[in-house]
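Researcher: Here's the sequence for the chain we discussed earlier.
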Amino acid sequence: MKRASIDVGSNTILLLVGEYDKRWISNTTYCHVTGLGKDIDKTKSFASGPMKLSFAAFEDYSAILKKNLITPQNVVVTATEASRVVTNADEFFSSAKARFGFDTILINSNGEAYYTALGVVSAASVNMPSSLTILDIGGASTELMQVETEPQFKVCNSMSLPIGSVRGTDWMREGQFEANIAQVFKSYDVSRYKTKHLVCVAGSMTAIGAMLKKLTAYSDELVQRHVLSFSDLVKLYEQTQRLKIPQLLAQFPFLGKRAETIRAGLKVGIAIGQQLGVETFEISTFGLRHGTLMAGTIEEEYVIKRF
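Model: Thanks. This is the structure I predict for it:
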């Protein structure tokens, strides 16, 4: 039986429609780039433009859910970092509930780490290692997770850093990226997460994987499990840093609105790779939305608020 989950992130809103029974029978992701977390460090609120784009995403997803005979009340909807720091989250999600019927759960960083890691491990193959470190670069926050897959799934450690592709884009525009990221690493000790091989999830890193494969149309199947080196990441940033958005889109049409934030995503990935001593990055197209769909509900220990 098909189920669905929605991940309301700081840059994108993702819908997953799928069937899971000890393995993925089907899973289809739909994406709207809404930039909901834009300028939240300054304004502490969602801006009207990103909220309008987000409501358009919910309207589109409502139609998709209806076609799949899934009611809004049966969709697990989660919100993360941007929704944790703004002052108008109540207003935004109450309006979404009134207009589209979605009950949204604001989850804490531990919940974000747990369900993201669960989603990644759900794509397990026969050679899935017994332990792995996962990186999730979001729009407003970045999660680091150390996970055991055997003898049973367990998140051993997790950390949420206040950096991401949308926040990083704001910092780059203000000429404050290096100073702000240095302050983050001064405030957060990431040494526990040092690793030569890092599994990466979420939109920035999956898009980077597609760029390095020189795709013109994005494909989960072609990006899943793609491995890139640290030097690959650096070279891609060097190649793209002077390109304007129309030039980026000419080379990589699939980026769409993500073209506005992808260079900051690259810079965040490079900065974290340097801190952790990473030699290779492995891309996973699975993540938070997969974990919450599998679970079907959110454990109370991970709930900050229900809208």
